[in-house]
Amino acid sequence: MQKESISILGCGWLGLPLGVALMKEGYFVKGSTTKEAKIDLLRQAGIEPYLVTLDPDIDGDDLCDFLQSDILVLNIPPSRREDIVEFHIQQISSLIDALGQSPVRSVLFVSSTSVYPMLNREVSEEDALDPDSPSGQALLHAEEMLMQESGFQTTVVRFGGLVGYERGPESYLARMTEISAPRQPMNLIHRDDCVRIIMEIIRLRQWGEVFNACSPEHPLRIDYYRRAAEASGLVLPPEAETAEPAAFKLVSSRKLENALGYTFMHHVQ
Asked: Measuring CA to CA, which residue among 14, 135, 136 is closest to residue 80?
């Protein structure tokens, strides 16, 4: 039985290794980039490359061909700009219009746990009501727009802070002058788990769902960076002086673990 064709909109730090992993499992993969210089990189990886931009309208020389797939993985974080919410809504609206002219029937939207406010407790998928940050607000709007569409089914996966490879804590330590909110628990996930979770959602056809995806451990910021400093030989910056304990959230991934029968590969501590 021939496996589905998959288009990945956003073949960067996460999308490129995801595309390579999907190809190894027998899927036909197309991938987009906004940079001409990365076209050869995708081609060398075996991914059919496309130049696609969302500025905010979607544009590309072969856009119809790029969207000739069964599944779309949408992996574009909101742009850091003054009108971040409005701009991201326009991007998603333009993409939805293009999807209406395509055979895509399943969309996997890579979202973030920034959709949750700091509730000082454990949060589950139902708690995304009033995000604290503009990027969280933009993502929640995008989730709602995609989930409301009837022409395709959308599954949203809300990843915690992305770590692994060149995004290790030591790379941040070198630039830090102090550790803010040192007693705040962190919600993190390794890139290897991100790739495997997306692949499992596709394999098990878990469409029309919303999943959190974070490592079960929630290390305090001070402990996370202390371990990194000890392992790398870097100096641990001083703790920031704060009058009150920092607000926090503990993101639960139980729904995902149960639905996929998933066990995390990396326990981020």
From this structure: 135
